[in-house]
Design a protein that fits this description.
- The complex is a heterodimer of chains A (557) and B (317).
- By secondary structure, chain A is an alpha/beta fold.
- Chain A is 34% helix and 20% strand.
- Chain B is 37% helix and 18% strand.
- Chain B is an alpha/beta fold and 317 residues long.
- In chain B, helix 1 (27-48) packs across helix 4 (129-137).
- Chain B starts with 14 loop residues before the first strand and ends in a 32-residue tail after the last helix.
- The chains are: A alpha/beta (557), B alpha/beta (317).
- The A-B interface holds A 244, 247-248, 250-252, 254-255, 257, 259, 281, 284-290, 327-330, 353, 360, 362-365, 368-375, 438-442 and B 26, 28-29, 31-32, 35-36, 38-39, 42-43, 77, 80-81, 124-128, 148, 150-153, 155, 160-161, 163, 213-216, 218-220, 222-229, 311-315.
């Protein structure tokens, strides 16, 4: 242990001074007056804390972990905070230090006193390799809280959070030190910056300064589950407990040949009677399936609320979504696995058929198919085509969980509809899609009342459709090879059509091959009001084409 | 005619024999099915007054498809899900391919439960299936109750108020034993693979019973999906289907349809149908034909190649 009356020591740079200043601010605003145990701290900290009435007791992580100094050094007053600095030259194993401090916190709490505050200040370890690792699934979440992220050179933001959580702490205050670059970024730098921020790494943060409170009851994260306990896919089934089709959905899941799945049945805004009905149905399956099925009640929020809650508790390697009127074939999971094995780390997708159903008022059943099967969606996912409109209903695909975790992908709860399209498109544009050619699901399209298309007003669909495009367009999108040629062709085609129109009206338009891989959208001939996509763009009316295939709002057969 | 309600009361349908005829099926699929049957029978005990059930597996494979371990796994799956309502799970190796109908008849002869529940081996029954089928079967004069299939729902029409229909599919159907026995069960001789259920349905209706679709009861029937519906049949299945159609025409007194079928099929264009016709002619020449039913046309429905009107139509495979 060094003297609490440390000298000013070596000078520190501007950033170092900012870090010390932040640490002092966090401690002075959150900890009771007393002594602060400073671990590997720069000498300048002492003066800062002293100016706020704190005494400083200095030690090093080496001494602490080596047992040559205790976590509770002898001081005259009460120890109200520990602060751990992880510098470039410090041989700090942060997780071990935090675990030691957790024991000390418990000891203090056991004696009836308030446990000390724990503050960590470490360099933000964000490198291009680290970023790519996160965006390519390479870490596969197995590096959770691993010591690689907590080595001397600093920590990543989420690595620090996980380490603290594993040690039994919850984050109290985030006071990171940022060094902002005010010059306009290049395109590559901007894109990498966007991606880094989405993975929880702000590249402009030089030091992570965070305080923690002891919370031994904090739930372990998904990443802390036991090895081998991961099902291949978590299937989220969203229900309001009213559709008799739910038994179809669950039975088709129970019949999977590849049963490496968990089913999260999210009962959203249900009455006690509806919840009891859902729970009774779930409990009536054979244990081989029932043991994989969990019912969770979610109250409040819109359509995204049960999905986002499910993302918090899902433990599968992939996550898929079914509505409570979808049915799947017995190789639905197997097809996802085939696609995942062919191209790992991608969104996986198979084909779906569409069947129209109508509500019935009879005693026997409350719905009935009114059509055979059709497969209107393209066999292969095409990013540009899916940006135009959703050609891939939710039951077609599964998203890698590492991507959900890395980017903190969530369903946009500000959208009333189209939230699943945005979620899928956001994932697909970053990591691509691996397709399996099998038709493995039946998307039931309600004619008239009954489905989400009917539940929301037409203008809501239109508004949210453009919202999704505008939101995603606010960030960079990685388009696959071949996209530039297709955009070029689209421009050529558009120019040709404009030329033809000027020459002689619509009757003179020459037929040209479709540039979209799917079937052509049938125009209903109506016009819709399109909201502005940016502050500068006007509100315009245009031909209604956006929703004909997906929501069947405009072009009913 | 048999008196449809002779000796039958609502309380009399409290025992079930659940019968599955397998033929080299994937064992893990049979184990899954066994669990689903057990769970459905448990639900029927809790919701529909079922007192006891026996689950019987009959093996039509050339060589035994199940090992002793397999049988233990299947029996355990039933027991784990059934919570005591199943008194026994049995296994019979037939030593010959009896077909689905013949195998079902053999299993029916092994027991005396009031209700015979025929379940295809490539299915998974929903937990509510037995409950809903039993409830429907307790309607007077009802001989058979069929579950709604997913993911490919059958398109045949039924009365939206009563569920009464032309025929019931054998994938997941409950029969009153009294009715089943009275008409002699399935005719496996002429309908070894296809239309044994159509024929049995029509004979039940001919005897004065009604048969019903129960859309609330759900069964997953493992079908591969094509672009527009079910995938195309194999040649063997198509052959059997053509031949079964001709026997139905024969038994149900529709020589006009037989003549049209024989006239319209060009064996060169459709060699599978041509082979079925050749098979048919040879058996007719040998006198090996089903006995015609008197006044049969009142129960037989032939519409556009189907055996019932359709509510909707799948595209041809």
């Amino acid at each position: 242990m060094t003297s609490s009356d440390a000298s000013a020591g070596d000078p520190i740079d501007r950033v170092g001074a900012q870090v010390v200043e932040q640490v002092v601010r966090v401690i002075s605003s959150s900890a009771r007056l007393g002594s602060v145990v400073a671990i590997d701290a720069p000498p300048q900290l002492d003066a800062g804390l002293r100016s706020h009435g704190f005494d400083t007791v200095r030690t090093t992580a080496d001494d602490l972990l080596g047992g040559s100094t205790p976590a509770r050094p002898a001081v005259d007053g009460e120890i109200t905070a520990h602060v751990v600095f992880g510098g470039v030259d410090a041989a700090v194993d942060l997780l071990d230090v935090l675990e030691l401090l957790a024991i000390e916190c418990d000891r203090v709490a056991g004696a009836g006193a308030e446990p000390p505050l724990v503050v960590v200040a470490v360099p933000n370890r964000i490198t291009l390799d680290e970023l790519i690792d996160r965006l390519d699934g390479g870490s596969s979440r197995s590096s959770v809280g691993d010591r690689r992220h907590l080595a001397a050179a600093g920590a990543t933001a989420d690595g620090l959070t996980r380490a603290a959580r594993r040690a039994g702490f919850e984050t109290a205050v985030v006071a990171d030190v940022a060094v902002r670059d005010t010059s306009p970024p290049t395109a590559v730098r901007a894109m990498l910056g966007e991606l880094a921020r989405r993975t929880g790494h702000d590249p402009e943060v030089s030091h992570l300064v965070r305080s923690y409170r002891r919370n031994a009851d904090d739930r372990p994260g998904r990443e802390d589950r036991a090895p081998g306990a991961t099902p291949f896919v978590s299937v989220i089934v969203r229900t309001q407990g009213r559709r008799s089709t739910l038994v179809d959905t669950l039975t088709s899941l129970a019949a999977q040949r590849d049963d490496d799945l968990e089913v999260l049945l999210m009962a959203h805004n249900v009455s006690p009677e509806e919840l009891a009905h859902v729970a009774r149905l779930a409990g009536s399956f054979a244990p081989t399936f029932g043991d994989r099925l969990r019912v969770t009640e979610v109250t409040g929020g819109g359509r995204s609320a049960p999905l986002n809650r499910a993302l918090e508790i899902a433990v599968g390697a992939y996550v898929a979504i079914l509505d409570d009127d979808d049915v799947v074939t017995s190789d639905w999971v197997a097809a996802f696995r085939r696609a995942a094995e062919r191209l790992p780390r991608r969104v996986v997708r198979a084909r779906c058929a569409v069947q129209s159903i109508e509500r019935r008022g009879g005693e026997l059943i409350d719905f009935e198919p009114v059509s055979g099967l059709d497969t209107p969606y393209p066999a292969r996912f095409d990013l540009l085509d899916n940006i135009r409109s959703n050609r891939s209903p939710p039951c077609c695909s599964a998203i890698p969980m590492w991507l959900v975790d890395s980017l903190e992908l969530r369903f946009d709860d500000t959208l009333q509809v189209c939230e699943d399209w945005k979620f899928q498109l956001d994932a697909a544009r970053l990591v691509g899609v691996s397709d399996d050619p099998a038709v493995t699901s039946v998307y039931r399209r309600w004619i008239g009342d009954g489905g989400s298309a009917g539940a929301a007003a037409e203008q809501v669909w239109i508004d949210d459709h453009y919202r999704v495009v505008a939101d995603l367009d606010a960030e960079h999108t990685i388009v696959p090879p071949g996209s530039l040629r297709r955009i070029h062709e689209l421009y050529e085609r558009l120019e040709q059509l404009e030329t033809d129109l000027r020459a002689g009206g619509s009757g003179q338009i020459r037929s040209a091959r479709s540039l979209t891989p799917g079937p052509s959208i049938v125009h209903c001939g109506r016009t819709v009001t399109r909201p502005p996509v940016s502050r500068e763009s006007p509100v315009i009316t245009s031909n209604c084409t956006a929703f004909c295939r997906w929501s069947n709002r405009c072009c009913r057969p | 005619l048999t008196d449809p309600d002779a000796g039958v009361t609502d309380g009399g349908l409290a025992t079930v024999g659940a019968h599955v005829v397998i033929y080299d099926n994937d064992v893990s699929a049979v184990v899954r099915l066994a669990g689903s049957i057990g769970a459905a029978l448990r639900d029927a005990r809790d919701q529909a007054g079922l007192r006891a059930a026996t689950v019987r597996f009959g093996d039509s494979s050339r060589w035994p498809a199940l090992t002793a371990d397999d049988e233990r796994s299947i029996a355990a799956a039933v027991a784990d899900a059934a919570d005591g309502v199943v008194v026994d799970t049995t296994f019979s190796f037939f030593g010959a391919n009896l077909g689905s109908g013949g195998g079902s008849n053999a299993l029916a002869a092994e027991g005396d439960e009031a209700v015979i529940w025929v379940v295809n081996p490539d299915t998974y029954v929903a937990p509510n299936a037995a409950t809903e089928l039993l409830r429907a079967l307790r309607t007077p004069r009802t001989a058979a109750a069929e579950a709604r299939q997913i993911p490919i729902e059958h398109q045949k029409a039924y009365d939206p108020r009563t569920g009464e229909t032309s025929w019931v599919c054998g994938a997941c159907v409950m029969f009153r034993r009294a009715a089943f026995d009275a008409v002699g069960g399935f005719d496996a001789r002429f309908f070894p693979l296809y239309c044994d259920d159509v024929d049995l349905s029509w004979r039940l209706r001919h005897a004065g019973w009604s048969i019903h679709q129960v859309p609330r009861a759900v069964v997953f029937h493992d079908k591969e999906l094509g672009e527009r519906g079910p995938v195309a049949w194999s040649e063997t299945a198509a052959h059997s289907s053509h031949l079964a159609r001709l026997w139905l025409y024969h038994r149900y007194d529709r020589p006009d349809l037989t003549a049209r079928f024989l006239d319209e099929i060009d064996p060169v264009v459709d060699p599978v149908a041509g082979a079925a016709i050749a098979h048919y002619r040879a058996r007719v020449a040998a006198g090996d034909v089903p006995d015609p039913l008197p006044d049969a046309s009142r129960v037989a429905t032939f519409v556009d190649g189907q055996y019932a009107p359709r509510r909707f139509t799948y595209a041809a495979p």
